[in-house]
């Protein structure tokens, strides 16, 4: 019997922050939620890693989060990857009680992931996909969602249709599609017509993803494909304002433009938030590079950011780049 999809949390907006390893840390997610992202998703996390961290946590007296997040982020989804159904079930049991949604990664093109039959490689494995989705549903009572690519390579570019059917049969609550193949990586354009095809073929909400850089792109994807929500990745790097702009465009037909200086200014809020979590300095510095994009003399600012060795130097580097922008 097909299980009913579990109810999703209420989303405050139709634009979600895409999971991005190395980018969507809890501080970045917080900035995006504060500016209207309807849902934020953690970086993908290995099921084995979660199980091992929980073991360590218990041995060390139970302190600390296995996957860091804050209450202010809610609704927040945790993205898992892996191909070991048992480990995924245990991981879902560990993180499920803390998160609003469990998302399963069927899109990662990185060879070290696809070699383990995980990420995008799962698109070729409908039986394993079924076992994994069942295991995730057994592991916790949270809604399970799936994020997938369209296919593996040019001659298997439509595997998403079969994978989506399996997901629906296993009670997935929502399906996100990045319509490129695994072998395409990030080259070319994503094929939005495949998002429309997915929307026509499933009954659960569909999230369209791929190449949204402006509020108008988000509106166009919603209108052209009929998808229920959009998910923004690279366009939101160093630019959390994109979410409030999408919401304003959809609700009022217009939005406030943000200058490069306003975007760079938001980096100080990022730094403040980052102090609450165990985010390492090189990560914070890499985020600074993204926030200063578009500033006059950005190349000079980037060189100073790259040379900074602690938070104080980094703050001064961004501050000086901003001073030059006034
Ligand atoms: C740096 C980076 C890291 C990513 N990490 C993940 C990830 O952890 N999980 C995932 O499902 N997708 C990941 N993606 C893919 C994005 O979620 C998204 O599907 C893709 O970038 C297309 O959307 P965009 O054109 O809005 O960037 C990553 C993309 C980038 C650029």
Keywords for this structure?
single chain, 326 residues, alpha/beta, TIM Barrel, 2 domains, nine-stranded parallel β-sheet, 13 helices, 13% strand, binds flavin mononucleotide
- Kindly, what is the distance between the CA atoms of the first and last residues, rounded to a whole number of angstroms? 63 Å
- Name the poorly predicted regions: none
CATH architecture annotation of the largest domain: Alpha-Beta Barrel
Q: Classify the beta-strand content into a percent band.
A: 5-15%
Largest sheet: 9 strands, parallel
Classified in CATH, the superfamily of the largest domain is Aldolase class I
In short:
The chain has 326 residues and is an alpha/beta fold. The chain contains 13 helices and 9 strands. The protein is globular and about 60 Å long.
Word description of this protein:
- With 326 residues, the chain is an alpha/beta fold.
- It has two domains: 15-252, Alpha-Beta Barrel (TIM Barrel); 260-323.
- It is 44% helix and 13% strand.
- The protein has 13 helices and nine strands.
- The chain has helices at residues 26-34, 47-59, 85-95, 111-114, 126-139, 159-169, 192-201, 215-225, 241-252, 260-274, 281-291, 298-307, 311-323; strands at 15-17, 40-41, 45-46, 76-81, 101-106, 144-151, 174-181, 206-209, 229-232.
- Strands 1, 2, 3, 4, 5, 6, 7, 8 and 9 form a nine-stranded parallel beta sheet that branches.
- It binds flavin mononucleotide (FMN).
- Residues 18-23, 43-44, 79, 105, 107-108, 147, 178, 209-212, 232-235 line the site of flavin mononucleotide.
């Amino acid at each position: 019997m097909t299980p009913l999809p579990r109810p999703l949390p209420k989303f405050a907006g139709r634009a979600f922050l895409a999971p991005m390893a190395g980018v969507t840390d809890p501080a970045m997610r917080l900035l995006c939620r504060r500016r209207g992202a309807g849902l934020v998703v953690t970086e993908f996390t290995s099921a084995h890693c979660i199980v091992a961290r929980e073991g360590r946590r218990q041995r060390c007296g139970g302190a600390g989060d296995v996957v860091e997040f804050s209450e202010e982020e809610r609704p927040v989804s945790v993205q898992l990857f892996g191909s070991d159904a048992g480990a995924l079930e245990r991981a879902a049991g560990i993180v499920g009680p803390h998160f609003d949604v469990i998302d399963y990664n069927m899109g990662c093109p990185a060879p070290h992931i696809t070699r383990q039959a995980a990420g995008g490689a799962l698109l070729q494995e409908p039986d394993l996909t079924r076992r994994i989705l069942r295991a995730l549903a057994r592991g916790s009572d949270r809604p399970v969602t799936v994020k997938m690519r369209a296919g593996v390579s040019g001659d298997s570019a439509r595997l998403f249709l079969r994978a989506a059917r399996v997901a629906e049969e296993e009670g997935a609550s929502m399906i996100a599609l990045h319509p490129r193949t695994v072998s395409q990586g990030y080259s070319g354009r994503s094929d939005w017509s495949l998002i429309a095809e997915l929307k026509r073929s499933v009954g659960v909400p569909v999230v369209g993803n791929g190449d949204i850089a402006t509020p108008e792109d988000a509106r166009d994807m919603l209108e052209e494909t009929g998808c229920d929500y959009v998910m923004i990745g690279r366009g939101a790097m160093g630019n959390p304002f994109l979410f409030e702009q999408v919401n304003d465009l959809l609700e009022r037909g217009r939005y406030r433009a943000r200058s490069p200086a306003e975007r760079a200014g938001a980096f100080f809020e990022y730094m403040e938030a980052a102090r609450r979590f165990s985010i390492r300095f090189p990560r914070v510095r890499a985020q600074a590079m993204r926030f200063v994009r578009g500033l006059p003399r950005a190349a000079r600012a980037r060189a100073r950011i790259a040379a900074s060795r602690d938070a104080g130097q980094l703050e001064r580097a961004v501050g000086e780049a901003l001073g030059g922008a006034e």
